[in-house]
Structure formats: structure tokens, C-alpha cells
């Protein structure tokens, strides 16, 4: 719909024959209704007053356009140039708003993709962190075991030193005799 509207706007800007409008009534009706929907969705934006004026113009245009797809006579179009000038302004605003919405939707999709990627990376990081913590716990247990073993060895070494000292003292006594 956006491409059709842009094409119609280009025709209207380059060709002052307003008969083009009457040949595109269904597209105009759809685009004006879409513009009104967009205006309702973005009511909180700073330009709400400007949009409200465009909505009022859209309502007037929708009331004016016949509900059939029969072409409007060229005399009627020529007689009401101000109306069609307003219609052109409305169409330009509708195209601009649709383009903005497409950009916002594209940015939103990009943000969603980035969020999913970051979520996967976070999950992988958490898994890696958990595995690293488990490895550290295992290493700490091994270290505690080695400390206990070392302590036991030191105790045995102390006992052996005591025995050796005892033997040296005994052998010294034996050699004196």
C-alpha cells in the first residue's frame, strides 16, 4: 500500500490533472483510513494537534468521496481545487507516517533479534560460569586433599626426625661406653 501511495503522490506532484484522484478512489479510501488508524496509535507524540487537523481533513474527505468506485467528474475536481490540495497534504502526511512506522517496525525487529542473540550469549556465559565454578570447586577439593596429605606427611616426618634424634642420641651413648 505504501508503494502504491508513493506512486500516486509522484503522479499528483508531477501531473496537475486531478482526474488521477478519481481513478484511485479505493486506494485513497484505504490510505486515509490507514492514516486515521496510525494517528490513533501515535496520539502521544508531540505533533498531536497537527495530526488531529489531518484527521479532520481525512474525515471530510471520506465523507466527500462517494462510496462507489465510479470516477468523479473533472468539473467537480477542478471546481474544488482547495479540497484536493488538502487531500494532497493529507496523502503526503499519510505516506510520511507510514514510512516512519515501517522504520520503527524495522528497528523494533532489529532490537528483538539483538535481544535474542544477547539472551543466547547470556545463557552460554551462565553455563560456562557454572562449569568453571564446578571445576574450581573440584580443584579446591583436590587442594584440600593435598593439604591433608602434606600435613600427614609432615607429621610422619616430625615423628621420623624424633626417632632419628633418639637413634643419634642412643648411638652417641653407645659409642661412649
Polypeptide structure, described:
This protein has a domain at 2-107. The protein starts with a helix and ends with a helix. It has helices at 2-14, 19-23, 25-41, 48-64, 74-79, 81-176. It contains six helices and no strands. Helix 1 crosses helix 6 (81-176) and helix 4 (48-64) packs across helix 6. The longest helix has 96 residues, at 81-176.
Percentage of residues in strands: under 5%
Order of helices and strands: HHHHHH
Report how far apart the termini are: 121 Å
* Radius of gyration over C-alpha positions, nearest whole angstrom: 43 Å
- Uncertain runs are none
Shape: rod-shaped
User: How many alpha or pi helices?
Assistant: 6
Helical residues, percent: over 70%
Average of the residue pLDDT scores: 75
Specify the structural class. Answer: mainly alpha
Oligomer: single chain
Largest sheet data = none
> How many E strands?
0
Protein name: 14280_t:CDS:1
Organism: Racocetra fulgida
Biased composition (Basic and acidic residues): 132-142
Region (Disordered): 117-142
Amino acid at each position: 500500500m505504501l508503494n502504491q501511495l508513493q506512486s500516486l503522490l509522484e503522479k499528483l506532484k508531477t501531473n496537475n490533472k486531478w482526474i488521477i484522484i478519481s481513478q484511485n478512489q479505493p486506494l485513497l479510501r484505504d490510505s486515509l483510513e490507514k492514516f486515521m488508524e496510525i494517528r490513533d496509535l501515535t496520539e502521544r507524540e508531540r505533533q498531536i494537534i497537527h495530526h488531529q487537523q489531518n484527521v479532520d481533513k481525512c474525515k471530510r474527505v471520506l465523507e466527500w468521496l462517494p462510496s462507489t468506485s465510479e470516477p468523479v467528474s473533472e468539473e467537480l475536481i477542478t471546481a474544488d481545487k482547495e479540497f484536493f490540495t488538502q487531500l494532497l497534504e493529507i496523502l503526503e502526511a499519510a505516506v510520511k507516517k507510514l514510512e516512519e512506522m515501517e522504520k520503527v517496525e524495522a528497528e523494533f525487529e532489529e532490537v528483538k533479534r539483538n535481544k535474542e542473540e544477547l539472551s543466547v550469549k547470556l545463557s552460554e556465559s551462565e553455563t560456562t560460569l557454572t562449569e568453571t565454578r564446578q571445576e574450581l570447586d573440584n580443584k579446591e577439593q583436590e587442594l584440600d586433599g593435598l593439604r591433608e596429605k602434606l600435613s600427614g606427611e609432615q607429621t610422619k616426618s616430625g615423628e621420623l626426625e624424633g626417632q632419628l634424634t633418639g637413634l643419634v642420641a642412643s648411638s652417641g651413648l653407645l659409642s661412649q661406653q
